[in-house]
Every structure is written in structure tokens, then in C-alpha cells.
Amino acid sequence: MPVRAIGSRLWWGLPLLIVLLWGTGVLLVPHIPGLPAAPQTTVVGLPLTKYVRDCASFLTVGCLLVAALQPALAPRILRAAATWAIVWLLASAGFAALTVSDVLAKPLQAIITDANARQFTGQTYTGRVLLAQVIACCLVLALVGLLAITHRFLAVAIALALALAAAAIPALLGHGGLSGGHVVATMSLAVHFASVACWVGGLAVIAWLTAASGANLVLIRRFSTVALACVIIAAESGLLNGSVRLTTPAAFVATAYGSLLLLKVAVLAVLVGYGWHQRQVVIPGIAAGDRGKPLLVLAAGEAGLMAVAIAAAIGMSRVGPPVTTVSVAYFTPVATTMLAIGLPAAAYTLTHQPNWLHWPSRLPEIPAVLLCILAFESAVVQSSSTSSAQAAVIATSIALAACGWLWTLSWDGQRRLTSLALVAIGWPIVLAIGNVVTGSSSWPQVALASALAEGIIVLVARRSMQRPRISSSSQIGIDVHQ
Ligand code: HEM
After folding, report:
1. Domains in the chain and their CATH numbers?
2. Is the Cβ atom of 140 under 6 angstroms away from ligand 1?
3. CB of 54 closer than 6 angstroms to any ligand 1 atom
4. Rounded Cα–Cα distance for residues 19 and 327 (Å)
5. For residue 333, is pLDDT > 90?
């Protein structure tokens, strides 16, 4: 059944989201004496519903985008568009109800009859935006239904524009809404939403069509151009949005929000590598007669990574950016892991191995042990003097990333397993000892960072085992045929 097949990997993000929320501590309901607390089901259900809403909106946009790129396919795709628009509408309504339950700290069943809930929805800014989202979903659904009858290109284009605007509405609910100094944050987030919707949704629908009836070269070429523009816009708008909310280098590494942002940057870097491979290798292969299997293999990997990025984004929106200027030289375990392992691993997939630096592959113990020592150092860096804190953060970040990069140079060598195993074993121990010494992170954060590190190392080890051992410096890291 196509609806289930479209982008099924995107749903992997749901369990990951639970782990991220648990690791960052936002699944716990804060109990403040004298104040009512939101029910646990609301606290868990809210981000999960948001994830479903976002993915359903992306898939609806993706169906309409593909119908606009190749109008001949419209009759086939519109039924899937309608199905996803229904899921989107239900998830938006569920999200609105859960938000009211969260704000009023009342169980879901109680808010249906609650007069305050009606007042909240009709009279507050948040309530009106939530209502606007539900109404926009209804309009998209009605237009898609109309399209099934008319199949006119103009109607597809209008439905796509409306769906994009509806997908971007949640940006108005960002921290602060569309007011005062938050205009840049809100607008950049709306652009981010729209570009990610076209990119994620379009890719999922193209993968579905390719799996169902083989590669469609014209469509794939057209989408590839759109996807390139979307990646650039998504990266630009995401970085702009992040820099508006995180105003000092320390905020990127000392807060859960900044650490998840680093995770997203690493994921985006790998996705760029995948896109490059898609354009340079897979599309020419399809032009030469390939049926599209490499495209599907790559698209499955891309969808999995997109799920990680979306889960991290929703984690960020739950954690929230820091409210005051962060000027403390402190590294969260997730930030350390991303700087030392995540970003170098992403760079490994994007760049050539230099052919002038051979010692890390001959002596992999050195970069591996150095990396663990530096991770410990970063855990115990705790300067709170404003002047030295930012310098310490920048210097330690560069040192972690550089040492991580040296470590990646051993991944294609003869003793790559030794190198990977040393860090796989050492990393959780180092993070745990660092936390015992400083006591500055929570144990779920340490567990989350260790799990992320192990996950990346397992992925690298799997790929590394299938690659030829070092010597060729002309090799790019991604190999979709594996
Ligand atoms: C350079 C890379 C990226 C950066 C810097 C970035 C940054 C951001 C920021 C700052 C937000 C706002 C979070 C908040 O509400 O406080 C956001 C939201 C979002 N991002 Fe990204 N992003 C990047 C890449 C991606 C990618 C690759 C995807 C998916 C494929 C993605 C999907 C999303 C989604 C779905 C949201 C909205 C989540 C929600 O609140 O419903 N981002 N991003």
C-alpha cells in the first residue's frame, strides 16, 4: 500500500524523539508546589503529535510538489495527497488540543468542556494560530479533493502554495511569535519549514514512485534542482534562526538547545554528501539505463537522517533556547560528542582523505586515546569568567573537532577496528567519569550522548568494513551500493 510505503523511514524518528526528550529531561513533569502540572500523557503526546503533524504536512506538500513538477502524474498522486492531508488535519487538531491541555494543566478529556479552553483558543495569540493551522489544513484538503476532479495545473500550483503556507504556520508559534525583535526568527523559521517540507516530502514521494514503477528520469532531474535549492535555503534559514537564538559560542555547547543544533548541522552535512552523490553518480546511472535501485538505497538513508533532524528539531522546540546570555565555558556531553565524533564523521563522508598524513592510520591508538582525553578535558572545563569563557569554548571546540578529524583518518587503515573499538569503549567511560568529577550533567544526558556516539561508530564501522583499505586518496566516503 503506497501510503504506508511513502517515506516509512521517516517514522523511525518517533522512538528517537522519545530518547532525545528523555535525555534532555523534558519528559519529566515539573511539580511546583501550589501550581497545577500538565498530565504526563500530554507531556509525552505533545511532541509525538507534533512529529506526526510535521511529517504529514511534508508528505502532503511532497505529493503536490511532484504533481506540479510533472502534471501527468497528478491523478495518481492526488489520492496519497488527500490521505496525508487528512492525517495532517487530525494531527494538527490533536496538537491544538494537547497544547491547550499543556497550557491549562488539565487532562485532555477535561478541556473539551472547559470554558477556559474555548477562551484560550478564541482569544489568545497561540490559540488563534492553532486554529488557523486547523482551518488551513481543511482548506488544503478541500483543494486536493477539488483537484481530483479538475486536474488543472493552476489548481495544483495554488494547492501547493496553500499547503506550503499552511506547513509554515507553526513558525508563528516559535518562541515569541511574530513580534518585535522576533520577526527575523519567525520569518526564517517559516522559510525553514517550507524548504524542508519540499525537500523531505518530495524525496519521499519520488522514492515511492520509483519503488512502484521504476525511475522517472525527467521527474528526478527536475526534483534534483528543487532539492538543491531547498538544501541551501534550509541550511541558511536554519543557521540564521539558530544564531538569532544562540548569541554566544558558549550557548552552542553549554545548552541542550545548542547541542541538538550541532546534531542537526552534522546530519545536514551528511545529507549534502548524499545529495552530491545522487546528482553526480545516481542520476547519470539512471540516464544510462539503471532502474533506480541505487536511488532507493540512498533515499532510504536520506529519509533515516531526515528523521533524526526532525526529531532533533522538535527536541529543540521542547527544550527551548536559553533565556539569558550564556557565558559559561561548559560542554554538555551531547555537544562534546557532536564536536568530536558527529561533525568529523560528517566531514569524513564529504571530503577526500589527505594523502600526506598517514600516521593516524598506522597508529590509530594515538588519535583515539587523545580524543578520549580531550573529551574528559572538555567535561571538566568550567570557566565562568565571562572574558575567558568564550575563548575557552572556541579553543576547546576546535581542539575536539581537529582531534576527531585525526581519528577519522584511521578509519580506512588496516587497524580501523582497533581505532573504532577504542573510542566505542572509552567514550561512555570518559563521559561518565567526567560527570562524576564535575556533577554538572544529568545521567540521562550522559546516556544519550553515549548512545549517539555508539550509533555513529556502528554506522561508520559497517561502512568501513565494506570499503577497501586505505591507499586511494581519490575516494569519496559515500558508497550507495554497499
Ligand atoms: C544547518 C542545519 C540546520 C539548522 C542550523 C537548523 C536549525 C533549526 C532551528 C534553529 C529550528 C527552530 C527550533 C525551535 O523551534 O526552537 C529548526 C526547526 C526545524 N528544523 Fe531545522 N535546522 C537544520 C537542518 C534541518 C534539517 C536537515 C531538517 C530536516 C530534514 C530540519 C527540520 C526542521 C523542522 C521540521 C523544524 C521545526 C520543528 C517544529 O518545531 O515542529 N532542519 N531548525
Report:
1. 2-319 (1.20.1630), 333-466 (no CATH)
2. no
3. yes
4. 28
5. yes
